[in-house]
Write a structure and sequence with these properties.
The chain is an alpha/beta fold and 503 residues long. The protein folds into two domains: 220 residues, Rossmann fold (3-Layer(aba) Sandwich), CATH 3.40.50.10260; 269 residues, UDP-N-acetylmuramoyl-L-alanine:D-glutamate ligase, CATH 3.40.1190.20. Helix content is 41%, strand content 15%. It starts with 7 loop residues before the first strand and ends with a helix. This is Bifunctional NAD(P)H-hydrate repair enzyme.
């Protein structure tokens, strides 16, 4: 199925090197591209703040600043009260655009004199300082401008529009270097960039809009995408309506392994999620002390304990399963580590999460298996698996998820705002931007594990499991939080999840 240009993600360098070639193939000049970019920003501005709102446009020295200069002229023509605050233009296009503004008696103030009091006189601030042109840390003058803008925005409740990328945000990795504009809205040009979709991006980008400028389709033919967005259609085609003659045996058997004393809730959440995601049967293999608690919490779960169970008993139990979810509430002590070794030694497909990941970080050889493996770490777990730090993982999430997949020979999902997914042999990374701060609570990961395990058992294609699970989990989180993000519980995702798997 063809992928929409709205789902394709390209590295900044790819766009920079090929956008003019794509434009020229359609007889579109660089000046026309700049006009189209400015018109797209004007349309976003008009939707949010109709004229005669007061607009301050901060222009940098390059073509991002040129977009700002052109926007200044267009906005004034459409009735806005516009003030340009700018660095000295350096690129040819920026110089032309600045000269056109000044020829029309537009006023300009120096960017280095920007102060919070002056900013507060405006309704809208447009950030056209550096965009995606940033290749190193901001220098002191731009750090000062960014901090002044953010301070004024938060104190005076101003609306901030960034052109292409918030200044200071690294457009491939999604990290502030070292500070970045906190935009309410970002219009990015030609193609989506990786750094606008993951890591710290959600904090700085605000609402993201892609302006194709009429050349995206031509650009698409010149470059292979670096990543693709997971959308609802991707999920729906893997979950067709069920046959009227279906029975539980056709929809897979999931076994959840975990539930050390005091952590039985993790297994209950994973088991419920597996059921709500459509598994025909869900069994639990747990610690003897957790048996009664889990059985009473969810009657549909078939619960067995490991009391007096040998490795042979466990392997025979697991051989009945279509998928095993290993890790929710497992613990890293002797009981959990022993189960982890036994499970990974089978030929059953395994979804590894939580303490299962932490045990494998200590015993890497156990993950060397011929049977399929899926892993779903958060940055802390990923750091332990890769023998690094959480901060290092977050500095380049794209590299981290690819290393996880390759070093563990697994389909890997790196949790976070902008979830990243890739297989051991995949060229293109998948990214899921669905989700909500409501998911930032203990137990949410267990729900994701249960969903993924259910999809494995139901026979979805190996590479589709984690993208579909991430989308279902994130969207269920959004719907569960409609009444409020604070206080939403992982168990609140179950009813939305049920609806989402029945498109």
């Amino acid at each position: 199925m063809p992928v929409s240009v709205q789902q394709l993600v390209y590295r900044t360098e790819q766009v920079r090197e090929r956008e003019l070639e794509a434009a020229e193939s359609l007889s579109v000049s660089a000046e026309q591209l700049m006009q189209r970019a400015a018109k797209s920003c004007l349309a976003a501005l008009e939707r949010q703040y109709p004229a005669p709102a007061r607009v301050m446009i901060l222009c940098g020295p390059g073509n991002n600043g040129g977009d700002g200069w052109v926007l200044a002229r267009l906005a004034r023509t459409h009735g806005y009260r516009v003030q340009v605050v700018a660095a000295q233009p350096k690129s040819d296009l920026a110089k032309q655009a600045a000269a056109a503004w000044e020829d029309e008696q537009g006023t300009v103030e120096p960017l280095e004199k920007l102060d919070r009091t002056h900013i507060a006189e405006y309704d809208v601030i447009v950030d056209a300082m550096l965009g995606t042109g940033l290749s190193r840390d901001l220098d002191a003058s731009y750090c000062r401008a960014v901090e002044t803008l953010n301070d004024a925005k938060n104190f005076h409740k101003l609306w901030v529009l960034s052109i292409d990328c918030p200044t200071g945000l690294q457009s491939d990795r999604g990290v502030a270097i070292p500070v970045a504009v906190e935009a309410d809205y970002t219009v990015t040009m030609v193609a989506l960039k990786p750094g606008l979709l993951t890591a710290q991006a959600a904090h700085y980008v605000g609402r993201l809009e892609l302006a194709e400028l009429g050349i995206a389709a031509a650009f698409q033919h010149l470059e292979q995408p670096f990543a693709t967005l997971v959308e609802q259609d991707d999920v729906a085609r893997h979950l067709p309506p069920r046959s009227r003659t279906s029975h539980k045996g056709r929809h897979g058997h999931v076994v959840i392994v975990g539930g050390a004393p005091g952590m039985s809730g993790a297994v209950v959440l994973a088991g419920r999620a597996a059921l709500r995601a459509g598994a025909g049967k869900v069994s639990v293999l747990t610690h003897p002390e957790s048996h009664a608690l889990i059985a009473s919490a969810q009657p549909e779960l078939m619960v067995s304990s490991t009391e007096a169970a040998s490795k042979t008993d466990v392997v025979k139990f697991l051989e009945r399963a279509d998928a095993v979810v290993l890790g929710p509430g497992l613990d890293q002590q002797d009981w959990g580590a022993r189960l982890c070794q036994w499970v990974l030694g089978t030929e059953v497909p395994v979804l590894l999460d939580a303490d299962g990941l932490n045990v494998v970080a200590q015993h890497r050889a156990w993950a060397n298996r011929s049977a399929p493996l899926w892993i779903t770490p958060h940055p802390g777990e990923a750091a332990r698996l890769l023998d690094t730090t959480s901060d290092a993982i977050e500095q380049d999430r794209w590299q981290a998820v690819r290393r996880l997949a390759q070093e563990l020979n697994a389909f890997a999902l790196l949790k976070g705002a902008g979830t990243l997914i890739v297989g051991p042999e995949s060229e293109t990374i998948r990214i899921c931007t669905r989700g909500s701060p409501a998911l930032a609570v203990g137990g949410s990961g267990d729900v994701l594990s249960g969903i993924a395990g259910s999809l494995i058992a139901q026979g979805l294609a190996a590479e589709a499991i984690l993208p579909c699970a991430a989308w279902l989990h994130g969207r269920a989180g959004e719907q569960a939080a409609i009444a409020g993000e604070r206080g939403t519980l992982p168990s609140d995702l179950m009813e939305p999840l049920r609806k989402l798997v029945n498109p």
